[in-house]
Specification:
The chain has about 300 residues and is α/β, with parallel strands linked by helices. The chain has two domains: about 45-250, Vaccinia Virus protein VP39 (Rossmann fold), CATH 3.40.50; about 275-310. Helices cover about 40% and strands about 20% of the residues. The chain contains ten helices and twelve strands. The protein has helices spanning about 5-20, 45-55, 75-85, 95-110, 125, 145-155, 195-200, 215-220, 275-290, 295-310, and strands at about 30, 35, 65-70, 85-90, 115, 130-135, 160-165, 175, 180-185, 210, 230, 245-250. Strand 1 (about 30) and strand 2 (about 35) form a beta hairpin. The chain starts with a helix and ends with a helix.
């Protein structure tokens, strides 16, 4: 497809005049023309990670794979997967982002279904089912009730795989039923609806949000029918914050009939873990003991402790 670069540039400038410049997604529109810059602008490493995950889950081909991109922002992930053959539906709550994404799709000749809507209204009746769902940078912008509702809705529309990229609460200072997390501030209490819409890195309207701890998030996903939840480290995101994770959740058939006695705990009952600092302190103490106590004495202690455990 031949692209009139000058015409594309003019349309891009018109969109920026109405809606402001691109804030996150650096998309190549034509030779020498990008939505942000010819240099990497930040999200490129995450795009590589998400694309690789999708490609690997579906055996190297996204042709015909039905994808849902929740809170798609300016559409970069949707466009990349569509370019690789996926059938993509994308939901975004801010009209400015939808207009930018639709412009990029037209320019690139891609048929993504970008919908202006609220991810909290997701339903199987309205949107159907999907082989792959992307929840990138959205879950930790939802308050507790909406968060658990959206997770349930995601569970009902996902046939095979879910990729989550989200902030997690390391301390778990508050309880939300039998989940733990931290509460985040999204907007000032006196902010107007217009100000909240303009704050493109925050929620649409809720003043606060919840970031679940990693175990609580894993447990919530298991309870929605995801039988495996894995954390992605490769492809690497070297600058990723320590309280941010990329998870791949898969739906399959729960295994049974193992060659061992049945495990005491259900596979989805992920226990909360102590904060990282306490785990590091404990592991340091263990290393000191291993270094100072001779191996024969350690073996004897293990035998004694094992006998005490069996007696009790």
């Amino acid at each position: 497809m031949t692209v009139d670069v000058a015409a594309v540039r003019r349309e891009k400038e018109e969109i920026e005049a109405r809606h402001g410049p691109w804030t996150a997604h650096n998309i190549r529109l034509a030779d020498g023309l990008y939505t942000i810059s010819p240099e990497p602008a930040g999200d490129e490493v995450k795009l590589r990670r998400v694309t690789q995950l999708a490609n690997d889950v579906f055996d190297g081909s996204l042709s015909g794979v039905r994808v849902l991109d929740l809170a798609c922002l300016e559409g970069m992930y949707s466009l990349e997967l569509a370019r690789r053959g996926a059938d993509v539906v994308a939901i975004e709550g801010r009209e400015a982002n939808v207009e930018k994404a639709r412009f990029a799709a037209r320019t690139l000749g891609l048929g993504v279904d970008f919908q202006l809507g609220d991810v909290r209204d997701l339903s199987r009746e309205r949107h159907g089912e999907f082989d792959l769902v992307l929840a990138l940078g959205i879950l930790y912008h939802l308050d507790a009730d909406d968060l658990f509702s959206v997770l349930e809705r995601i569970g009902t529309v996902t046939r095979r795989a879910l990729v989550v990229d989200t902030g997690v609460g390391s301390a778990g200072t508050e309880s939300f039923g039998d989940y733990r997390g931290i509460r985040l501030v999204e907007h000032r209490a006196d902010s107007t609806a217009e100000e909240r819409l303009d704050a493109v890195w925050s929620s649409l309207d809720n003043l606060t949000a919840v970031a679940l701890t990693r175990p609580s998030l894993e447990r919530a996903l298991a309870r929605q029918g995801f039988t495996s939840v894995l954390e992605c480290h490769v492809p690497a995101e070297p600058a990723k914050e320590v309280d941010r994770v990329t998870l791949l959740a898969l739906k399959g058939a729960p295994v049974g009939g193992l060659v061992t006695p049945p495990p005491a705990a259900a596979s989805g009952e992920v226990p909360e873990r102590p904060p990282l600092g306490r785990r590091l302190e404990a592991s340091s103490a263990v290393r000191v003991v291993r270094y100072l106590v001779p191996p024969p004495l350690r073996a004897a202690l293990r035998r004694v402790l094992g006998a005490e455990t069996r007696r009790h």
